[in-house]
Amino acid sequence: MHFQDALAEDIRNSAARMLSEDVGPMDITAQLIPEQNLGRARVISRESAILCGVAWVDELFRRLDPRVVLTWHAADGDRIQANQPFLELEGPSRSLLSGERAALNLLQTLSATATRTRHYVDLLQGTGVKLLDTRKTLPGMRVAQKYAVACGGGTNHRIGLFDAFLIKENHIAACGGIAAAIQEARNIARDLTVEIEVENFDELDQALEAGADVIMLDNFSLDDMREAVRHTAGRATLEASGNVDETTLRTIAETGVNCISSGALTKDVKAIDLSMRMVEES
Q1: Contact 44, 83 (CB under 8 A)
Q2: Which are the contacts of 62, defined by CB distance < 8 A and separation ≥ 6?
Q3: Is 218 labeled as catalytic in the residue annotation?
Q4: How sure is the predictor about 61, in pLDDT bands with cuts at 50, 70 and 90?
Q5: pLDDT-derived band of residue 282, with 50, 70 and 90 as boundaries?
Q6: Which of 88, 218, 224, 254 is labelled catalytic?
Q7: CA angle at residue 180 from 176 to 185, to 5 degrees?
Q8: Confidence (pLDDT) at 280
Q9: From 40, 63, 101, 135, the catalytic residue
């Protein structure tokens, strides 16, 4: 499936799922408010962040109550400042309150991913190294978090197990070696990228000889990464992986590798602190 198609489907499915789990058959607390009451609300962030999740929130309120009008003062990928109102909502007060938590959950998680990514991308400024995400995403949020990484300036690695080969230690053992694994990948789908993970220079040489497109240097030391770059001499794309965080990112990039992958962009992000405030009811 093309990523844009997967994205459109994810937006629809995520909005429906979040309304189902939160609102269920009825928001009983919202029934305290007279049905005819109209209200207005603003959403702010309590901290600086990169906004992400606009389409998900639009779809959520469209499903909940199409009478709710959303006015965005920022777009996905924009930096929002603390206490800056970036979204205004108008419509039935019941619906504004019923959709509040689901909307904020989406925004705070996707914005957290985009914000972490932008921070890492800024640390790489000037190196020419690409920052890649991984499959270490929050359950049920793979496509959404991949989109958030792109909003933050990162580059998407494979979406799942279907759109590129990533041959790891257990695959190599099961196939009978690096050359055999790469050849079988070419036999299965010649148009897909073949990446292989190596743990030492002997495996690096085997991967180069077998014609891998991308070689992942798994937990190589900085000195070994520099030597791998020199030895490879552009014959394959080199990806650094393992022990990547904001304290090591720049140093790894300066070894000369082509890209760095990090699960920290998606798997353990801290939600952005957002708040929705009702400002008027009538």
Answers
A1: yes
A2: 15
A3: yes
A4: very high
A5: very low
A6: 218
A7: 125
A8: 58
A9: 101
